[in-house]
Design brief:
146 residues, Arc Repressor Mutant, subunit A, 7 helices, 58% helix
């Protein structure tokens, strides 16, 4: 399974909003500059994230985007699923009726187990967790010299 740019950039967009939401609504222009992602591309990510109930838009001169739920209530799985769709490695896991051998196929069982584990891990990681990891990495990157 390879996560597309949509999923990767969606997580970065959500992390950026989480890091800067204390300052008020976050504009796409600001996210674009900080994340080095074009505004045009970010626009394609906004609607699925809004439809999933993960972000809300604020209109006006000082408008932008805010999180629709607390950091600890937004899983990475929700973000990725809203942008990528179901997390499956092979189509027969999601749509078993497309293959006449799905009931006896051991390989399908393996792919389903792997997909379930990936889903479980992504569900266990929240936006709060990656904000904390970001802060820890930022602190560790600070070096002192005398």
């Amino acid at each position: 399974m390879k996560l597309s740019t949509r999923g990767r950039y969606g997580v970065r967009l959500m992390l950026d909003i989480a890091l800067h939401c204390a300052e008020g609504p976050v504009s796409l222009r600001a996210i674009s500059k900080r994340q080095d992602i074009t505004e045009k591309y970010l626009w394609h990510l906004i609607n699925p994230l809004k439809s999933a109930g993960l972000i809300e838009s604020i209109r006006g001169a000082h408008g932008g985007y805010v999180l629709a739920k607390p950091l600890s209530d937004i899983s990475i799985k929700e973000i990725v699923h809203s942008l990528e769709g179901p997390l499956t490695l092979v189509e027969c896991v999601e749509k078993p009726g497309g293959c006449s051998k799905y009931q006896s196929c051991v390989a399908r069982d393996v792919w389903k187990e792997v997909a379930d584990k990936i889903s479980e891990i992504l569900e266990s990681i929240t936006l709060k967790d990656i904000v904390e990891k970001h802060h820890n990495k930022s602190e560790a990157a600070v070096t002192y010299s005398i």
